[in-house]
């Protein structure tokens, strides 16, 4: 591979959406941010220079970061933030991945405006395992607030209330014609009849899983989280925050100058407030003039797609089950056959007592919280990876993250009366090359809800999912060990469970969290420490000299 150099200047820029202008954090003054393009095997160097008041870190979501954990980016997990006036060079090599990923800020809620696509092309001369597209187009979903990002996060954290819901969803940064005063802020994709387009869908929204569909067109899913899948056709794609899905769109052979809407709106089952509005972009046909037929050249009415209803969990479940690895000779599914470590995590909401002399917005004057196995993760003041590498874990983290829930109950039934969470900076330590099987169970505390869980540093295989409580004696027999989808973010089904398996072959400290930003803020997160192996290529190298200090 070659080395590709990027310079990312973090700076403010005035941006107008929904008829209001605000100053937002951007990379190089662009919103959404610039696209990173690399081939499998390339090394990417991104020099990030912070010209704003906020502390910043960037994360290359889904990039495996094999032995390059210092470049992963979650604040206080793998690095201290890049402070005003500082620079840091993220240096990583893309190994064994091709498809679509994205980058985003990984501190506070700054990813609201700091995000952009990562396009990983196959090695030179290597074709796609599907018909070669005529054109490739990133479609990145986001969320827009009229208020500034700080105001939103304070609402969620200080008083323990649900945060303000966003004012619009966006496609490539634009709300689209269904929002007030946004007709001119509409992304337009011009297609030619008969041609094939690879749409690289990315959900960079903060708090909403999304359904996406294009009126009168069928999509063929070919890749998820930068791993090829067995192609399948669908009218609608479900995509959670943190997931990427590449789809082929075949433009119809003969069309007059017609316009279709492609639109996205939430899938949500939880009790939280949800913006159920619809973002839309325009798909416009361009008839080459040689075959244009004036009689057929009529502008059709804007055609809108039909999307599943807000809480359509059965669509979500059946869509997820269609995703399968190619599992062929060229692209085998290397599912770990043996399991060294079995873990069971409950994921869900909970409550914290309201601090004295404060008024909180949660039920009965409590603060909303979220936890894994009843532990709400407390962000340390220094980076876990630095503490681990230098052998100075004391006072930073403890290694007693529970392997099972601290409070056992019927997870999909009535919750216990005491739903307060424990707090701590607890990690699970794994020897190098441990094969982990992890079942994640949604709890009904405060409400059954789908949680998109994202694991840094690894891809995992999704072996199975189901509704109700996971049954460890009957459910494993139904696991798919043949062609399970391999990815980095999976929705734990609302009122159900999902089972994943991964090989801990990447030494370092790896964050795992719900990719709904509000749940991450409330503590639905934890970290894994993967120890060094014996060989030289099984060890984490020392930190780069420009790694920021806390
Ligand atoms: Cu896309 Cu830890 O994040």
UniProtKB/TrEMBL annotation:
Report the Pfam families cross-referenced here.
Cu-oxidase, Cu-oxidase_2, Cu-oxidase_3
Q: Which InterPro entries does this UniProt record tie to the protein?
A: Cu-oxidase-like_N, Cu-oxidase_2nd, Cu-oxidase_C, Cu-oxidase_fam, Cu_oxidase_CS, Cu_oxidase_Cu_BS, Cupredoxin, CuRO_1_LCC
One GO biological process term: lignin catabolic process
Q: Does the keyword Zinc apply?
A: no
GO MF annotations for this entry?
Answer: copper ion binding; hydroquinone:oxygen oxidoreductase activity
Q: Which reaction does it catalyse?
A: 4 hydroquinone + O2 = 4 benzosemiquinone + 2 H2O
> Residue limits of the Plastocyanin-like domain?
11-123, 135-287, 402-532
Q: What function is annotated for this protein?
A: Lignin degradation and detoxification of lignin-derived products.
The Swiss-Prot or TrEMBL record describes its family as follows:
Belongs to the multicopper oxidase family.
According to UniProt, the name of this protein is: Laccase
Species this chain originates from: Escallonia rubra
The upper taxonomy is:
Eukaryota, Viridiplantae, Streptophyta, Embryophyta, Tracheophyta
